[in-house]
Amino acid sequence: MKRPILVLALLLAGVMPFAGTAAAADVVEEAPPAPVTVHYHTADIDGVDMFYREAGPKDGPVVLLLHGFPTSSHMFRNLIPLLAYRYHVIAPDYPGFGYSDAPDHKAFQYSFGHYTDMVDALVTKLGVSRYAMYVMDYGAPVGFRLALKHPDRVTAMIVQNGNAYDEGLREFWDPIKTYWKSGSDEDRKALLKLFTLDITKFQYTDGVKDLTRISPDNWTQDQALLDRPGNNDIQLDLFYDYRTNVPLYPQFQAFFRERKPPTLIVWGKNDKIFPEEGAHPYLKDLPEAELHILDTGHFALEDKLDEMAPLIQDFLDRSIATK
Question: Among 1, 150, 296, 310, which is most exposed with the fewest C-beta within 10 angstroms?
Answer without folding.
Answer: 1
